[in-house]
């Protein structure tokens, strides 16, 4: 290989055909490669079912893999997640995937429970998650001890109650999770906002949350809580969308 120092390769939004798995397999053989972005590359299920590619991926030292916006079947998602490099993977983006069925989340959950000691970020935005999927995701909490960032935005079938129940358990198990995004999910009311505040109040590690569909009257309670919590460090962006963080 003539690129012995290549660490990052971004191929996002290129259109690849079904025969390109051999090229990616060759790229993954680079011992220096740490970050690979294949977002929205028109990849189809057969790409992820290539045996050579899966074998090379499993033995790679990738730390970040972005395969958002591609098409998966049950078999292809199973091949992919069973081939991810568990000992090195830190960031995994599976957002906006096109599913040929809705069984992907169970497979992802099973993968996460197999143990990912270094995983810090996972994005499941617009993955057609429902309330039961959040329950499956909870099972992974003890097996991802370094998880810091979770994005479950744009999953329109999630309810406030399910999100609140999920956060209650997740944050009680995982004391590293600090960045949570759940915009584009449910419509918040005062009762649920107050419950959210109570949950966050018991989780001092959380320093950034993003949500929307919060009525103005509820926003005031949320913003006041955040400012009281972080004082001069508090950063609040609020309109129909709320981002609460620290600076």
TrEMBL record:
Domain of life (superkingdom): Eukaryota
InterPro entries the record matches: LRR_dom_sf, MMS22L-TONSL_complex_comp
Intracellular or extracellular location(s): Nucleus
GO cellular component, one term: nuclear replication fork
UniProt record, GO biological process: double-strand break repair via homologous recombination; replication fork processing
Keywords: Nucleus, Repeat
Chief site of localization: nucleus
PANTHER family listed in its UniProt record: TONSOKU-LIKE PROTEIN
Protein name: Tonsoku-like protein
Native organism: Trichonephila clavata (Joro spider)
